[in-house]
From TrEMBL:
<dbReference type="InterPro" id="IPR001867">
    <property type="entry name" value="OmpR/PhoB-type_DNA-bd"/>
</dbReference>
<dbReference type="InterPro" id="IPR049945">
    <property type="entry name" value="AAA_22"/>
</dbReference>
<protein>
    <submittedName>
        <fullName>Helix-turn-helix transcriptional regulator</fullName>
    </submittedName>
</protein>
<feature type="domain" description="OmpR/PhoB-type">
    <location>
        <begin position="9"/>
        <end position="107"/>
    </location>
</feature>
<dbReference type="InterPro" id="IPR036388">
    <property type="entry name" value="WH-like_DNA-bd_sf"/>
</dbReference>
<feature type="DNA-binding region" description="OmpR/PhoB-type">
    <location>
        <begin position="9"/>
        <end position="107"/>
    </location>
</feature>
<dbReference type="Pfam" id="PF00486">
    <property type="entry name" value="Trans_reg_C"/>
</dbReference>
<dbReference type="InterPro" id="IPR027417">
    <property type="entry name" value="P-loop_NTPase"/>
</dbReference>
<keyword id="KW-0238">DNA-binding</keyword>
<dbReference type="Pfam" id="PF13401">
    <property type="entry name" value="AAA_22"/>
</dbReference>
<dbReference type="InterPro" id="IPR016032">
    <property type="entry name" value="Sig_transdc_resp-reg_C-effctor"/>
</dbReference>
Amino acid sequence: MRIDTSGGLPALAFGRFVLDRASKQLLEDGKVLRLGGRAFDLLCALAERSGEVLSRAELEARVWPRTVVEETSLRVHISALRKALGDGVGGARYIANVPGRGYSFVVPVVALASEQPEAMQEAVAVVLGPVPPARRTHNLPGRLSHAIGRLTVTYALSERLARQRLVSIVAPGGMGKTTVALAVAESQLERFADGVWFVDLAPLSDPARVPLALASALGISVSSTDPWANLREPLRESRMLIVLDNCEHVIDGAASLAERVLREAPHIRILATSREALDAEGEWVHRLAALEAPDPAEPTPLEQARTFAAVQLFAERAGANSDSFALDEANIAVVAHLCRQLDGMPLAIELAAARIDSLGLHGLAARLEEMFTLLTRGRRTVLPRHRTLQALLDWSHDLLTDGERVVLRRLSIFRSAFSLQSAAAVLADAELSAQAVVDGVLGLAGKSLVAVDVNGHAVMHRLLYTTRTYAAEKLASSGEARRLALAHATHCRDVLLQSVPQRDTQPIGEWLQSYGRMMDDIRAGLDWAFSPAGEALLGVQLTVAAADLVYELGLIDEFRGWVDIAMEAVGTLQPPQPGLELRLCAARGFLGAQTRGRHFAHDVHVRRTLELATQLDSKAQRIEALFALCAKAFGIGDYREVGKVARSIRQYVPEPDDPAAVLLSDRFLALSHHYLGQHEAAKPLTERVLHYPAGNAYRQYIGHIPRSVSMGILQARILWMQGACDRAVERAAQAEAHAESDNPLALSQALAMGTIPIALWRGDNERAQVLVERLRRHAERHSQAYWQSWARSFEKVLTVRAGGGNLRLGMELGPMESLSGMGELDMLGTLVESSVSSIGVERADSGVVGWCAPEILRAHAENRLRGAPDQAVAAEKELTRSLAMARAQNALSWELRSATSLARLWQEQGRRQRAYGMLSEVYQRFEEGHATADVSAARELIAELG
């Protein structure tokens, strides 16, 4: 009922309590109870509207007006209020949580006129009479902690119970089935006139004793030989909810009881928890998911990470076990990693948090592989099998059939999701047929020991990390480990080889969804194959087979290590394997262009690659080798060599025979022309590559960077250099957009080679700052050391432009150790004049690099003038040469920079009219980009000179 308070604040009476709102006191049997101010206000808000549901927003507005409240504050005060009222003790209920809606005061409330406490108590006695003993309406065990992250599922299951008479909560052990069931049961106390009854089946060993457990919970005396004879009549017309907890080990008895109760007692509903479905008539199964944890692929800010249930649970339990623990920016990544490794399993997270005081957070994370000896400190009051992770899984293991135990331990060889076909291919042998493997996987899935994912193109299965670690120990002691490791690595190799034709015929996103999940298994296969107990030939084969997938995923730095190991191994194989060696040489060539710290000599690598290409009578392998040489030459900044090798590809392949090879040749020729400063020659080649009718075939050799990205970057750069400054920005943005949906390398290249330098060349430092931050985060996320180096250099450029001094790389080769290669050195020379070194000038002078040569010479001349005024003659010669070179390249943007520098020099020398005419002529050829820094600076200088 709703209390009218318009005429004052009458006291409110309920049960043994009187709420004196005027004096802000709560009395229990005449004694004043200590209650905080917030809790008192909260009690007033609930009691005044007894029987109604008040939302969180309504309660917070009443208790914390004009204050921003943390999500946990309301729960904390509700908890304190329940404790003060004895809510849940002896069956008494005062405050009910209505999932998804809010809280409700569920006892009758009476308004009293008298203001004195003694009179109030007398009035209560008159109005309510003596308080009768509370009717026992449930036997739910009291919960000492709240269920974190389960509000939505609790509400959903409560709603489901209104429509279904038998609902089963199914999940692996330790996932919190009982906790959720109790939360659901508590929310149903007002719905069932004859109560809610909890039946714990865990102590039973005989399925026939399930009816006896029900009778005991209900307080009904029954015959052990025919318990149903005494249960039938009490249950027939009852309106109650029965919770059957821990059904898995007596599942036949639980299913039989559920069917009989529902058949003969039409008003009863049953909520069951089990590790497998009861398979009873009318059953509705809810598979309880793990607690959510942050995505490992995305660094998660602290405030966002706090919203994940797994993190909340760990933080709460860790804080309870260690006064010094607090979730913060410094430890959130470690906490998120722990929660993911423990599969979001509440029991495992609680056990881990219990060790925080003795091991510390980092010590706990470092020793997680020892989880079955580490996670042993559970609460003494819980079931023995819930005190340690080992005991929990031993319990589940003991319930399996012999065949399921074999399949479970063998499945631990997989590191990621697997299909039924893969499981059969790896696990089956003379003693275990493929069909037996399939049956075993399905049986384990039914018992919640194998997770099932139906969200992709195919149904996939996987072991939780905790279960796999447990099963791996069983496998290690079985004597089967080596045979399984061999079968597993062989299967990975075969699947990868079969995947290549599909890559050329289906969208790359679908292909990666199908095969990208294999990377953890590929890593495990390589680890084993190159170990002393493994097989080196298989390791080399698996390395070669994995190359295409690795390139598409952008895992360049990681794969470089495997290629180096495979190169050492391939030289020891007997008989020799020239085909595999050539594929590894090709991989090294490409990786050499994408990684820092190259450890092998370029000339030796080129000679060996060409020797193998000549030795093998394979057109495809020859072209792949030449692609590797192109990529390698480009990576070290030898653009003449890029063009030379690109032309030689045509010698191997006539145009009609292999469109992919044609694209490969034209693509690298376009790169060679542009980077040598021959922009007009590069332009038609970029168009030809973009529109050549090759479909997906281009991925055969250059699949890691789509042509829409590589040629889009090139076109944007050419547009900028030729003075089309605005169109250059648009074209670079298009290339970046194409790269976003493709592989990680494509986006890094689009940012570092296209959008970022164009923004910096235009003088748009604010936009460049945003793009550089994006490149840095992206390169770090995908462990791309090569592009991380570019990001650091761009950040230094922005620092210098903001007044942070000079960016001097020095005059010797030594400073190059801090850069990824010559390409980065060349780029820096166009962004900060002080970064130009003798190496850069020598490359520009010799014609090894052309695209940046006019700007490198101009910047070098400016550095001369700043360093020594007597260098004016030499600087003028260099600026004149730079201007002529830019004109020869039709690089209008470089020409404008050179003309501006030369005009300033002539202005200082008193040759203003000549400077005005020369600079004005260049400026007037710009049809767009008038807001760029260079064009604005030229316009201002022209005004001064005029």
